[in-house]
Amino acid sequence: MRVLGIDPGLTRCGVAVIDGTPGRPVQVHFVGVITTPAKGELCDRLATLHAELSLIIDRYSPEVIAIERVFSQQNVRSAMSTAQAAGIGLLLAGQRGIRVGMHTPTEVKAAVTGNGRADKNQVTMMVTKIAQLKVAPKPADAADALAIAITAAWRGSVEEKYEAARKAYAK
């Protein structure tokens, strides 16, 4: 399964594209960040995210877009900008008919490290190992996007889980 992982953010939006199946090492096609200027106009920053994510989707044709679920933060401004960036990924998925998987930070940490309370260094170390990379992805947003993509590949999307449960219940 080809997955585009997105760690949403306006200043730095982590992105990673992988091929993967449950419990197996993954093949990394792309890992990096999309940046926008902190003092830029919101509409311009969102347009940049849309354009850059569109290019990545066009180039790699993911079957699933996995996005970190925005959680409540003490800083409302930060939570809003994260949600707006996540919305761009959701919009593109809807426009192109791509399945979506939303994963909480705790779920992502547990999937790649076995510990839902792992710190950023532990996550970076494990995604480097799982993806068999020679160098750890930098900055942390890129490593987080890779962790999100791995989680989706290993655990499947929300829709797949729903469909499996529906089929099991129908029997």
Q: Layout of SSEs?
A:
Elements: E1 2-7, E2 12-19, E3 27-35, H1 42-60, E4 64-68, H2 76-96, E5 99-103, H3 105-113, H4 120-130, H5 140-155, H6 158-170
Parallel strand pairs: 1-4, 4-5
Antiparallel strand pairs: 1-2, 2-3
Give a written overview of the molecule.
The chain has six helices and five strands; from the N terminus they run βββαβαβαααα. The mean pLDDT is 90. The chain has helices at residues 42-60, 76-96, 105-113, 120-130, 140-155, 158-170, and strands at residues 2-7, 12-19, 27-35, 64-68, 99-103. A five-stranded mixed sheet has the order 3-2-1-4-5. The chain has one domain: Ribonuclease H-like superfamily/Ribonuclease H (Nucleotidyltransferase, domain 5), CATH 3.30.420.10. The protein is of the alpha/beta class and 171 residues long. The longest helix has 21 residues, at 76-96. It is globular, with a radius of gyration of 15 Å.
| DSSP E strands, number | 5
pLDDT < 50 runs, ≥5 residues: none
Overall 3D shape = globular
The description of the largest β-sheet is:
5 strands, mixed
Summarize the structure.
The chain has 171 residues and is an alpha/beta fold. Helix content is 52%, strand content 19%. It is built from six helices and five strands.
